[in-house]
Amino acid sequence: MTPWKEFLRALTEPLDDHRPPLATARRRWLRALPYALVLAAVGSLLPTGIVTLTRSYGVDPSLATALAVVQSGALALGLTRPLLAWQLVAPSVLVGAVATHGAAADQPWPWPAPTLLAYLFLMVLLAVRERGRTLLAVWVVTFLGCSLSWTVFNAHFDGTSVVVAVLSGAVLLLGWSLRGRGEAERLLAEQEQISETERGRRTLLEERARIARELHDVVAHHMSVITVQADSAPYRIEGLPPAAVAEFGQIAAAARGSLAEMRRLLGVLRADGGAPDKAPQPGLADLPKLLATAGQAGVRAELAVADGVPELGPVPDAVALSAYRIVQEALANVVRHAPGATAEVRLSAADGALAVSVRNGPPPGRAAAVETSGGTGQGLVGMRERVRLLAGTLDTGPTADGGYRVSAVLPLDGTGPGESTA
Predict the structure, then answer these.
(1) Which residues pair with 356 in a beta bridge?
(2) In b/e form, how buried is each residue of 43-65, taking b as 16+ CB within 10 angstroms?
(3) What is the pLDDT of residues 328-337, one digit of tens each?
């Protein structure tokens, strides 16, 4: 495309965004401010323009009215379509210059005061809405028109055209700069929102991977037991038929293959460069040691076990591990947000489920939190994922005395993921 065609395109193709200035402002009075300013400008420039053109320049009243209506009334159109408004105003300025040429030697020409003010006001609306190349093209046309007036018609030159050229350029440049800054701030806010969303997703995926790594040991233990039992069955049970011995061998081989596949999966889930965790996964029996560790951090925690829990018998390893991690993360939150507070960990059983409750009181005095509430929330994310894994429920929230509570119900026979409530 030639430069000339590009120049004409800049003057004729506006942006598709037809929102008025400050349309995205949160406050209602800010959104209404452009309309109020345009209304005030039109209400003052319209009658002033008619009177000035008729009395000071001797223009026919009909023509003066038409010029004033176009030049001031276009400001209302400029709220949503400023380039179209300029396309209407620019020819009217030319017509007005012809109509007022030589009419009054003591009056500014070719820019009467109402025309000058309306044009500069329109430059503001253009600058905050149109692209940079359009603003440059508009100023070039304005500059060429002003240059024509002070060179060809220099007998009437009084410096007004220079003022218009300088002020219009300054207004367009300033408005374009402010618009660019606003666009940058908007894009930055959008990017921050996207980053926050991606950070939340990454935290969720990291928690799921960590839970999967921990549950690997639980599943691997059961698979190892199956392998040993299947391999030793022909030696422990006398008189097995050959078909049964072959069946036990196939079971043992399948279990060993599953263990190998799980090890490969664990390698994928493990963080880059992370060493495998060879320590056994904790369970309910490790809660007293966990509470003692919390006590060393300044949180006095007590363990209360309801009567029904001992009668449950062996708790499934996945449930015991999830209960331990929920208590661990809840106590860690107490250490971070309410140092020095007391906490109660309570285990109870009802309707085939294990209920875990961690409740802490407010911190004593004015102890400062180790970590503010603006953290990542990774502890709560981990709790929700563990409860969801076991098809349980989670309830968290502040208490009446200024403390915090975490309550989870973990079914002992959960077979699939469910939904948790936060």
Answers:
(1) 347, 408
(2) eebbebbbebbbebbebeeeebb
(3) 888 888 888 8
Query: What is the rounded distance in angstroms from the CA atom of residue 63 to the CA atom of residue 69?
Result: 10
Sorted by where each starts, the structural domains of the chain and their CATH numbers stand as 3-158 (no CATH), 284-411 (3.30.565.10)
Quote the DSSP letter at residue 107: S
Place of tokens 């300013």: 37
**Phi-psi sector, 397: left (phi>0), alpha (psi -120 to 50), beta:** left
> Model-level pTM greater than 0.85?
no
pLDDT attached to residue 199: 78
- The residue type found at 26 is R
Instruction: Read off the pLDDT of each residue in 10-24 and give the average, rounded to a whole number.
Output: 85
Position 398, amino acid: P
Residue with tokens 């097995």: 240
Number of H helices, E strands in the chain: 11, 5
Q: Please, which pLDDT band fits residue 421 given cuts at 50, 70 and 90?
A: very low
**Of 207-211, 314-318, 330-334, which one has max mean pLDDT?**
330-334
The Cα–Cα gap between 361 and 218 comes to: 34
How would DSSP label each residue in 147-215? Answer: HHHHHTTGGG--SHHHHHHHHHHHHHHHHHHHHHHHHHHHHHHHHHHHHHHHHHHHHHHHHHHHHHHHH
| pLDDT interval class at 234 (50, 70, 90) | confident
Task: Return the residue matching tokens 């999967």.
Answer: 212
Which whole number is the average pLDDT over 205-209?
75
